[in-house]
UniProtKB/TrEMBL annotation:
Keyword Transmembrane recorded: yes
Record's keyword terms, sorted: Membrane, Transmembrane, Transmembrane helix
Domain Concentrative nucleoside transporter C-terminal span(s) in chain numbering: 1-39
Protein name: Concentrative nucleoside transporter C-terminal domain-containing protein
Organism: Ameca splendens
Transmembrane portions of the chain: 20-43
Entries under Pfam families matching the protein: Nucleos_tra2_C
PANTHER family linked to this entry: SODIUM/NUCLEOSIDE COTRANSPORTER, SODIUM_NUCLEOSIDE COTRANSPORTER
Length: 113
């Protein structure tokens, strides 16, 4: 870029060189600010399995409520309780399921009965 502009106007080579350095620094700062804003707006997904493994199943915890609702929505009761993705490969899922039924006070959910 410097070479092309310098050949068009050789007398302003110093001005062009100083502007290029400022433009590079400004571009770097703008990119860093954009990355910071994207980092602030990103909300990582809730890992319910890890939450269940280390949780005491407190009914007041909003994350537990959300994960229990997700577990209930992926549960089928056709004589036996069956779980769909991503819950069907989780070890101790029936333990987590029974704890969700007990802690969250959701006895009206058909799969808890």
């Amino acid at each position: 870029m410097i070479g092309g502009l310098s050949s068009i106007c050789p007398s302003r080579r110093g001005d062009i060189s100083s502007l290029v350095l400022r433009a590079m620094i400004t571009g770097t700062c703008v990119s860093l600010v954009n990355a910071c804003i994207a980092g602030l707006l990103f909300v990582p997904p809730l890992d319910c399995v890890q939450l269940f493994k280390g949780s005491t199943f407190d009914a007041a915890d909003e994350s537990i409520q959300k994960c229990c609702q997700d577990l209930f929505q992926s549960t089928y009761n056709n004589g036996t309780i069956w779980f769909e993705e991503p819950w069907n490969n989780v070890q101790n899922i029936t333990l987590f399921f029974s704890q969700c039924c007990q802690c969250c006070g959701l006895s009206d959910v058909p799969v808890c009965i």
